[in-house]
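Open question from group meeting: does this chain pack into something compact, or does most of it stay loose? Before anyone orders reagents, we agreed to write out a predicted structure and look at it together. Recording both the input and the output here so the notebook holds the full record.
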Amino acid sequence: MRACLILASLIACEPVVLPEPIPVRPGAPIAGAAEGTIDLPVGTPMGGFSARTIYLGGNGKPDNRDSAYSTGFVESAGIQTRPKVKTLWLENGDIHLVIIKVDLIYSFDELVAEVARQLEDRTGEELEGRVVITANHSHNAYGPFSDQLHFYLGGDKYNEEIFQRLTLEIVDVAEEAYQTRQEASLGTSWTKNWDPDNRVYRDRREDNNELVVWEDDPNANGKDPWLHMLRVDTISGEPIAVVPTFGIHGTLMGESSPMLSSDAPGHIETLLEESFPPGTVVMHMQGGAGDASPAGNDDGYARLESVGEQATAALYEAWSNIETSSEPISLETASRHIWQTHDQIRVQREKQGDLYYTPIAESTWGDGEIYDENGAILTPIDEFIAPYGAAFCGSETPLIAAGNIGSDVYPYSTCMDVELVSAILEGIFVLPVDSVPLPLTESMKAGTTAALIGPLPTRQPDGTVTQEDLLVGFFPGEPTAMFTEQWRRRVQNELGFARPLLVGYAQDHEGYLMIPEDWLLGGYEPNINLWGPLQAEHIMEGVLRYSGELLGNGSHDDEDPISYFTPTEYEDKPLPTIKPDPTPDAGQWLSEVPEGTYLPRGMQPNLAPPESLRRAQDLIQIAWIGGDPMVDLPQVSLERLVDDVWTPVTSRSGRPITDAMHDILLTHTPAPLYPVDVEQTHTWWATWQPVGHVFERASLPLGTYRMVVDGQHWVGSESTWPWTTEDYRLESEPFELLPAELSISSTETGVEAWIQAPERGFRMIHPSGRSNGANPLIGPLTVEWGVDSTTLDSLEIEAPESAQHKTPIDVDYSSATWIRVTDAAGNQGTLDL
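Structure tokens returned:
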């Protein structure tokens, strides 16, 4: 055959010899899954909020500390939960599909490529184009791993050490998933309107409230209502992986917090996984999250738990209703980097024909008109005169004021020309003058992947079960609800798959993904992408095109025979040369918290070793001199004395209770705070509130406990990472865990009782309570009353499930001088009358 490349006005044709197609061979499904933590240094800036740049105010800066890993962003200072990496490895004896979910702000195409290369080296499997990395979109996870220059504003300047360390940790977990593969049974389900009361997530985009694109669904401008669930079991029915997909932002921690966290999406996993036996990997993937905010109740860190609490019942029900099958399936993948320069971008519309931009060579100033007399978008679009792209379109006030693209009509009037913005980026991120290439190389292509899996048993919203192939599109950005709906409709109409799945924040990043009709309304979401209103659906059409060409035709075709859709190439960067501090005193307890130590949520320092703690109501603090965070990320864990043996405390699912979970908070503070290249002392601090991880929140087993610290400090002579380290270990003084003291007050019909949380409590004690206020009791309750030392009567009652904050107890104790309430866990309180 003769293949032609069309680049602007240049047409080049070269003969291409295509390889013989390889037949698709169905086979029995095989699956493995694994999980781990992303253990990068505290001090690494967090991605997601541009307001964290020093240039834009430095929100969330804990103090004047410096870090070896920050350039233009504020530094992280501690851990609320360690970001996770999870992998589902699928194969069928024909090909492999590796789906990796990371708790990061977005994906990065070079990260995908490097992980695939290293996994090929370790496993010997052919994986090019078959590795997917999708992010959970936490705005409080590590930032400077991406070398997409225009997204330095989303996570700080790229750092080679962070990239290499992140890659290694991802590959380790993915290889573990590969090693655990076994014969599997698969099934899926679709549920619509599964969160009708907005308890888990809600629509955050008001700008499109009046927009109706599809007459058969005028409410498609709200949050995306669909939940997809993939169930992966062993052939004996034991769960391997539970994979829900729906859209929810990871923004509950907020831009003012310097604590690393998996945020709301991660806590959904954390709460749900406790419903399954040990070893089950729960891996949430993002759908139409671009305009969906997390909901929940309570405040602070407890609100993160509440989101997971609100979601768990519906997610578990969706999983439990799925039928699975171990019958042979076909497995196909295709991956392409889709060109998206100004003059190449096009989108199809039936009424007005193709939408495209007036070519730069032909463009003049726009005419100020966007729609025709029928409300359809005028084409060609003459307002987006931006040869290198434009940022901050649709903003009321541009994030960075630079020259706009010349249009006077909203939302184009707020578009800042990339050429002018690039000069400001050089200053913010200390780049050499004129070092930014135009057009931005990484902006010219968008990395994508599509996969076809099936047939799979598919439970429909009405409860019927069909056998269907599942087409999954992995998209490089933040899909909004209407974009996600457009994908479903266009796949159904053009490719014939009844219920295609969209996974966002995958393979690459291009900002918000919106259909043109929605983008043109302006607002917050349009201001992130660079290529205007047509970019996102242009990418979608590229995925539609190659999915139709390459998937489901019975053969594994070469997805890029003339190397037109190759990945973006990135320049090699050197490793940083700042060395860790040697810290020979690492591993020493502190009796006082040094002045200036960062403590979260306004906590007051208190290192007095407690002899006892009450469930839910007290906190223990520990502090020690540790290693430099360049090498030290101490693991703080909890142990309990069982039969005279110190035993790790675990959750119901078998996971150890450590600072990787939401149970223990960890912070780091250097002294002096800056500069980072002088010798510093490193104070580490941690706290635990005696609340059960998910279950037994107010009923942890009584007994003797202690806190344990395992850390590292530098003992080598290297000038760049990796560093040689030596371990240290600390064990706190034992303390006794006691029942909580119940609060009781009189009412007109009896009394009310509750567990009063501490003022600086950070854990959710009860779904209907407050982390720093009153919490209802878990029944059955024992109520006794009497006079002096004599008990007059008692009764056992159930605690009403509807109780909010305090539990009402109707009882006539008129002749008594005291009344006592004991809950199901033995927590007790007495009211003197």
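Observations to bring back to the group:
The longest strand covers residues 445-459.
Residues 742-832 form one domain.
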